Amino acid sequence: MKVSIITVVLNNADTIAAAIDSVLAQDYPNIEYVVVDGESTDGTLDIIKSYGTKISKVVSGKDGGIYFAMNKGIGLATGEIIGILNADDLYENTQVISKAVAAMQSNNADTCYGNLQYVKRDNVKAIVRHWHSGGFRRDSFLYGWMPPHPTFFVKKSVYDKVGLFNTQFRSAADYEFMLRVLFKNQISTCYVPEVFVLMRVGGKSNKAISNRLKANNEDRQAWQVNGLRMPFFTTYLKPLRKIPQFIFKP
I want to staple 79 with a disulfide (CB 3.0 to 4.6 A). Which of 4, 57, 119, 126 is the partner? Predict the structure, then answer.
């Protein structure tokens, strides 16, 4: 079973090599790696090209933003399963993809997710937050739950069925997509209780309070565009669920 991993990048010369190396180090034997560059100007593309044919597909061009680029990568992917690894992130170990595929096969699931750790940008061994996802319950979405998107593996057939990322969203298209997949369409999933991804702090949706407020507004819109009624308490519980991530670390 082929797995396509997609990395989208724009001017991440300081972190892109670590992301690429973590994909290339995976022990899974059938990986297609697709890198979508948004016309970087800081040397990122030179770093990407230095890997030669180790990267299956490289495209560079202007796009409308991160979710446009992700959709472009999904369109280029030919694997049966697709994972998306951001340019700031890296897989925690060499067996992440193998474990995700094995879990999907043994559970006959169309999606899979794991845990995630936020780490310092200049020291990935320094854990800032630990995102323990926990097992899936559909009604958990009502209480602000969501799986960490960088750990989310999805069969390509799911994208064919429910669609790609909704690019009307600027920071919550991943949340809207997972809400659409897991809550609205009730696509099957499975949970691997291990850390899949290390995410450097400073992502688009958590850089500042103003960005977080915009993301909360988009969270409400995510329910609306899917014809779903979002309970009034969900928007408050979603950020509150993050507090334990700062306290309980392995």
Answer: 4
Residue 6 pairs in a beta bridge with 34, 84
Contact between 7 and 89 under an 8 Å Cβ cutoff? The reply is: no
User: What is the CATH number assigned to the segment(s) 3-247?
Assistant: 3.90.550.10
The single-letter DSSP state of residue 182 is: I
Cα–Cα distance, 26 to 49 (Å, whole number) = 20
Q: What is the pLDDT of residues 103-149, one digit of tens each?
A: 999 999 999 999 999 999 999 999 999 999 999 999 999 999 999 99
Beta-strand (E) ranges in 10-110? 31-37, 57-60, 81-84, 89-91
pTM for the model: 0.92
Q: Which tokens sit at 92?
A: 């925690």
Length in residues, the chain: 250
Backbone phi, psi, residue 193, to 5°? -80, 55
